[in-house]
Amino acid sequence: MTSGDYLIVEDTSQFMWDYWSDNWSDKEENAKGRQKMSDLRNWLLKHEHEYLIDTHYQDIYGYNGSKNWNSILKRF
Question: Distances from the Cα of 64 to the Cαs of 3, 27, 32, 71, 76, in angstroms?
Fold first, then answer.
């Protein structure tokens, strides 16, 4: 990726996975989703000097107003 490129990671809403854990029979998929959030957090900590959360797009419908929490990233 080069400067100005975007990386968007879908389905990173904690509320979404909390709801699905109680209302979705596929427990394995739910576990994968929770692991994705953990992996993203760890990856962001390692690359915090390479990417910024683009709050213009991230919060266009309100603070974290989508299923993609803090995961619309722009390389600088």
Answer: 24, 25, 21, 9, 21
Q: Which domain holds residue 23?
A: 6-75
- Per-residue pLDDT reduced to its tens digit, 12-65: 888 888 888 888 888 888 888 888 888 999 999 999 999 999 999 999 999 988
pTM exceeds cut of 0.85: no
Q: How many domains are there within the chain?
A: 1
CA–CA dist 8, 19 (Å, integer): 22
- The two tokens of residue 42 are 């760890």
C-alpha to C-alpha distance for 36 and 60, rounded to whole angstroms: 23
User: What token pair was written down for 65?
Assistant: 């107003």
